[in-house]
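Supplementary notes for students who missed Thursday's class. We covered one full example, reproduced here. Read the sequence, then the structure, then the short commentary at the end.
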Amino acid sequence: MALLTILLRYAKPYWKFILASVILQLVSVLAALWLPNLNARIIDEGIAVGDTGFIWSTGGIMLLGSLLQVAAAVSAVYFGARTAMAIGRDLRRDVYRKVTDLSTLEATSFGAGTLITRGTNDVQQVQMLALMTLNFMVSAPIMAVGGVIMALQEDAGLSWLVWLAVIALAAIVSVLVSFLVPLFRTMQDKIDRINGVLREQIMGIRVVRAFVREPFETERYRKANADITQVSVRVGNIFVLMFPVITIVLHAATGAVLWFGAFRVNDGLIEVGSLTAFMQYLIMILTAVMMGVFMVMMIPRAVVCSERIDELLQTESSQSFATTPSVATPTEGRIEFDDVSFGFPGAELDVIKRANFVAEAGQTTAIIGSTGSGKTTLLGLMLRLFDASQGTIRVDGAPVEALTQAQLAKTFSLVPQKPYLFAGTVASNLRFGHAAATDEELWAALETAQAADFVREMTDGLDESISQGGTNVSGGQRQRLSIARTLVAQPTVYLFDDSFSALDVTTDAKLRAALPEATKGATTIIVAQRVSTITEADKIIVLEDGEIVGQGTHTELLKTNAVYQEIVQSQLEAVES
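Structure (token representation):
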């Protein structure tokens, strides 16, 4: 069972805390079982004969026992809570590490919504079960068994009431739990759904408002919310039934003890104090059963959550990275694609088909093609966001599969198609790929990226706050800061994935003029939509439907390549119109 495996694995490092909690709970329960017996002796032996000294001495012992019970119970809860929180922390850490280790394909197949839910809500359910287990599942059985033994010592003739009450509760719980398990599984799926919808709406809020789709998106969220509400209400209805039924059984058992016990007292078969103690033990037993019921109600949901967590933890990435360097870190940056093909799982056709080209070290290689031709996928293959299904990609003669992640990060630096900035400051974002970069290096990168002017105009300059995603700067500013971040990293190979699309023609021209000096000696690969951006490239690769249909300089392709001629002509017509 996934739940048991997870709890045992993550609780093992904290066995000392668990042992302390178990011992303290044992002390607390034994003290609780002992107190009713002392109370019965006060009633039967002290009050009956008017022995005030016996009452005071025994009462003092009861007081000390109560204080011991409270101290042991509080300490047990402390150690139990500390262990449960540690288990939750370690589990969240491993889930996070697994998510970050997944390849792009696995992460996409799970989906962002369910990954968030598994790392937060699912872990919390397992953590709460661990807390309840350490606080209740140890003391409840001891209290139940001890209560039965002590009750039988007081009066075996009423023992049938204990068994009847326990069997009734067990039957009720079994029936209700059988309804809870499928509902909890459905509930977690609905939480995934509502998280996914909410995340999509937050990320796409500008698009939603631009197209005035608020009513439609509100209805989507309302439906997802209604679905989870419906399931939650059904679960709540079972909870509503649970506790009144348990209370009825508890009060019925207490009334039965008083009813049948009165006849036994009248017949002289039991003392009043013993009857009082028996009733207290019965309440203890049923309380322990109630604690068990509460635990049993939590177990189904925790089981579902643990299975989802275990599914994620057991997922093996389709990619494996070298752990120790087997080849030298590339220093020149010569990229070679040797008969490379790639297709997404489940797709009928390959996105990249038998690609063969060389991006020479120290030169600028441009990739151009229509939308969906596979330009971004080519860059992803270099970065090992995906692994080629056929062929080999080499950097300075070494297959990219032979490089460690650290070597890949040092070799390549990417400006993505959709620039993303992290919450922090301008400086913290620029130092993302080179933590030790000086302020002078940051300003130099900003100058090249044509971002220095607007950063200087900010109130705090490099220390200006940047919100998550860079939403407090414009699209063009965000793109230029992303370019500066890549320049600060000073890699061997610069990858620009349509990174100039948000820039005006003047800024684009200034940036392209400044780039060669900043990237001198490094290999530059530019994916572009505008021909004007790449006319000065040493080599231009033309893609169409994942196939390379032309390679050469701008002048050569204008003379020999029909696809490139079409692209140039279409852009000239667009400008003229």
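Commentary. Residues 214-266 form the longest helix (53 residues). The mean pLDDT is 83. If anything here is unclear, bring it to office hours.
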